[in-house]
Amino acid sequence: MSDNLASQFLLREDVTFLNHGSFGACPRPVFETYQAFQLELEREPVDFLGRRLTDTMREPRHVLAAEVGSGPEDLVGVINATTGLNIVAHSLPLQAGDEILTTDHEYSALEKTWAQVCRRTGAEVKVVKVPLPLEEESQFVDTILAGMTERTRVLFLSHITSPTALLFPLEAVIAEARRRNIWTVIDGAHTPGHIDLDLDALGADFYAGNCHKWMMAPKGSAFLHARPEVQGLLTPLVISHGWTEQSKQPGAKGAFGNSPFIDEIEVQGTRDPAAWLTIPSALAFRRENDWRSVARRCSELAEETLERVVERTGLAPLGSSAFRAPQMVAIPIPPCDAPAIHKTLFEKHRIEIPVFKWQDRHIARLSVQGYNVRGQMDSLIAALDELVGLSDQAASAATA
Q: According to the model, what pLDDT value does residue 174 have?
């Protein structure tokens, strides 16, 4: 992997950045496009926001839709995946006794979202435990199907999980949920730009994804996708000029000529749309730099680093390679004071990487992106060995 790629990013040179998964990192030329849009807005805000915004927002939507396998009328820009998923969670007509079926691998912010929805509606969250290590699709599918009952109204799943970096095989459970008239809501925060997407083929009712992570657009760029048949269920979190009283009538148009789904969610009052407008630039950057090849090398480096740590510790990965996110891996490490290790890695070793306890496991979640090189993985392994005794763990396991 060429060091030249690092020069195309704005990351600090004194920090080994191994945490692309949390907030992403925007390449320099994409960020410059972002700033150019902001400057254009400030030079004539009324023209930009008052006259041209609806038309300007359309190109990124069409370009992104082609990238993720969606019709452009079925996808709308939001500032992050959490916002998109909150729109769905607060719109669905749930009531007391209804169940939201989910797993024990979900993002904590969305766990809180569904908890609040349940407090308001009287519905209940039902959590199933996905067997680990995840080595066969049937382990996941059978667990989800066994959790479905006549009370299940929503199936909420991550596509790529945040704490465990697992890639869930969703197709079969989404199809079965459709057969049972269960709404499927998918958290795709880590997915766009990370794996190939075909949202129409996947068939989820609702899918939210971030563009600021693996697609490398600026922060504030994400989307909500909804099948045409369920778009009428949605109510925006913010009611503004895009809303009309006739929006739920068959064939209705939104206030600005798009579908009500787009106009009601896209128009949120005064805001800076520059991050969303930069999506075509981010996708162009990926093409110009042959990002498929870059991603392949990153995936190989992530897998190699995981294997090197596993060899030292004897701790098994959480799943086989078929069910691990390509560029983001959850590395099991020996029991430790995870917050203290995280702090020391940054303050002493200048390594930025999440370290945390998840259930009864301790994890260092490694992200590998185009600006990373193998020497940084060497530094991580050496630091972890110093702080948590990787080789000591393997020796203990051998004598146990």
A: 98
Q: Where are the beta strands (DSSP E) in 12-51?
A: 16-17
Paired with 155 in beta bridges are: 101, 184
The per-residue b/e assignment along 36-57, b for 16 or more CB within 10 angstroms, e otherwise, is ebbebbeeeeeebeeeebbebb
Give the Cα separation of 65 and 67 in Å (integer). Answer: 5
What is the DSSP track for 86-141? HHHHHHS---TT-EEEEETT--HHHHHHHHHHHHHH--EEEEEPPPSSB-SHHHHH
User: Has this prediction a pTM greater than 0.85?
Assistant: yes
Pick the closest to residue 318 from 302, 303, 334, 329 (CA basis): 329
39 in any annotated domain:
no
Q: What are phi and psi of 343, to 5 degrees?
A: -65, -45
Q: Give residue 390's pLDDT band: very low, low, confident or very high (50, 70, 90).
A: confident
Q: Count CA within 13 A, CB hemisphere, residue 212.
A: 19
pLDDT-wise least confident of 140-149, 281-290, 359-368, 391-400: 391-400
Report whether 312 contacts 393 (CB < 8 A). yes
What CATH number is associated with residue 391?
A: 3.90.1150.10
CATH number of the CATH domain containing 195: 3.40.640.10
Over 80: is that where the pLDDT of 253 sits? no
Do 295 and 278 reside in the same domain of the chain?
no
Domain count, the chain: 2
Question: What is residue 384's three-state secondary structure?
Answer: helix
Cβ contacts of residue 12 below 8 Å, gap of 6+? none
Partners of residue 187 on adjacent β-strands? 158, 208
d(CA 282, CA 215): 7
Secondary structure of 263-317 in the HEC alphabet? HHHHCCCCCCCHHHHCHHHHHHHHHHCCHHHHHHHHHHHHHHHHHHHHHHHCCCC
- Whole-angstrom distance, CA of residue 195 vs CA of residue 176: 23
